[in-house]
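Quick one, T. Sequence first:
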Amino acid sequence: MTPAVRDVLLNPGAQTLIRRHHLRLWEPLPWLLAIAAYFAFPTYLTFGTEVLVMILFAISLDLALGYAGIITLGHAAFFGAGAYVVGMLSLYAGWTEPITLLLAAGVISGLLGLLSGLVLLRTSGLTLLMLTLSFAALMEELSNQFGEYTGGFDGKNLNFQPILGLFEFDPLSSKTQYLYALAVLFVMFVAVRCIVYSPFGQSLTGIRENILRMPAVGTPVRTRLVMAYGISAAVAGVSGALLAQATLFVNQTFLSLERSAAVIIIIILGGHGRLYGAFIGAIAYMMLSHFLSKVYPTAWQLGLGLLLVVIALFAKNGILGVAENLFRRRGKSA
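Structure tokens:
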């Protein structure tokens, strides 16, 4: 038995995690629905691409917040860092190959997460919350100060080579962007799933559930948290780079507090500590924002806020948590 497995077995939530380890029959369903949406809603592929990107961004935050228990209000710093990596490299270095640019964005954002994590994760609670917020604000101000190169709020238009030399980015139909985003999301989801259900991921769950008990069994808590923060930052960087490639544009909004707040709302809606909660939360948030803004252009946030209040009061584990409880109760009654 490895130390990580022993750690998590000493944690009360370990058995739940282990039960969720094996693939379930319904797990291909979200991916089949995403493929079906490509054919069923050809006029909404731009919107669909944004949804896929936000799912990936939410997965990155869930790895830090939902599994490792790292409270952050500045995750958009890494999202924007990934976007600016592909933007600056394509504009000033002539590096326009999309897939390798995604890898570069993930590596640089991950290193930024590791370096910042070494400092930020010396703290916890409200102090950590404010420091992550300040870090994101600092990144946004750096983008503004170097607006001559970054484009600042006005941003910069980008150009990339066709994917694999075959599929060109189409800003009108977004067909290529949608399939590209779906493929990247699938690869990153599989990678994060392997991490979550590895001994390392199980030890993160143990740290989240009882951070005081884990050092007693020999777990290097701070090292594990910094590593999780770095991996989470890398995934966030890939999602930001993916949106920059899909929209062929990058500006300061990639680093904004609103983006950090939006991804936290997505985690709350879908349910934290559940990989598929990011899917449900992102779809619910994006669709509600889209349709409410059409119905009530000046007060659409009110409807979203009311929903969040209801979720916080009556569904603390989010939409997916409510569904799991209903199925569990139905199984017991049967």
